[in-house]
Design goal:
The chain is of the alpha/beta class. The chain folds into 2 domains: about 80 residues, 2-Layer Sandwich (Translation Initiation Factor IF3); about 110 residues, DsrEFH-like (Hypothetical Protein Ychn, Chain: A). The protein is built from 6 helices and 9 strands; from the N terminus they run βαβαβββαβαβαβαβ. The strands form 2 sheets. It has a 5-stranded parallel sheet with strand order 8-7-6-5-9. It has a 4-stranded mixed sheet with strand order 1-2-4-3, with helices on one face. Helix 3 links the parallel strand 5 and strand 6. Helix 1 packs parallel to helix 2. The longest helix has 14 residues. It is elongated and about 65 Å long. The termini are far apart.
Length: about 200
């Protein structure tokens, strides 16, 4: 049996399913394909079902999905209609923002602070909204009254965005009594939120 591996990480949908189709058309009986987004995973599984291939799947904590397609011995028609394979982000797609500093980029700290305020104020304008915003190290300063991003964070919390703030970091900067938004959290909860997310976004 001819078996190949296709590493399709980093490829935008629908390129992974097109690569699978091409490999099968060239005679591969079995394919292990690796993707890093849910839309591509679902497209490949749907393609396999529609064309009579058996599948085995596995999901890694880092967001990678491995799908193994194997021929079942039945005749296969590889006719392909791109309209059958949509690339929309599923409703359950979970984005997490990580804010690990009180400055954005390198160079002027004053400019970096101003840029970060604008960055957070702009989050509400970008779809999809994050499921959670995680703040640690000096990023926790953004949940205090002196932060120009405070109103934006309060608004995001009102929209259902969960804001988790590192408790150890608040203690280090003596800010635990100054927190105005979000809930005090810990490293286990912060790491679990990162691992569980479909996409982690950071401005650094």
């Amino acid at each position: 049996m001819s078996r190949i591996t296709l590493d399709c990480t980093g490829l935008a949908c629908p390129k992974p399913v097109l690569r699978v189709k091409d490999a099968l058309a060239q005679g591969a009986d079995s394919i292990e394909v690796i993707v890093d987004n849910s839309a591509s995973k679902e497209n490949i599984l749907r393609f396999a079902r529609n064309h009579g291939y058996a599948t085995v799947t596995g999901d890694d904590p880092d967001g990678r999905h491995t799908i193994v397609l194997a021929a079942t011995g039945e005749p296969v028609d590889l006719e392909f209609d791109a309209g059958d394979y949509q690339c929309a982000i599923p409703d359950s797609f979970e984005v997490v923002y990580v804010i690990a500093s009180d400055s954005m980029g390198r160079g002027s700290e004053e400019l970096g602070w101003a840029l970060l305020q604008t960055y957070i104020q702009t989050i509400q304008e970008v779809e999809p909204l994050p499921k959670k915003i995680l703040l640690y190290n000096s990023g926790v300063k953004l949940v205090t009254a002196s932060s120009g991003a405070l109103d934006a964070l309060i608004h995001l919390q009102g929209l259902g965005v969960e804001i988790l703030v590192c408790g150890t970091c608040l203690d280090f900067f003596n800010l635990k009594s100054a927190i105005k938004v979000g809930q005090i959290s810990n490293m286990y909860e912060i790491m679990h939120a990162m691992i569980s997310a479909d996409k982690v976004v950071s401005p650094y």
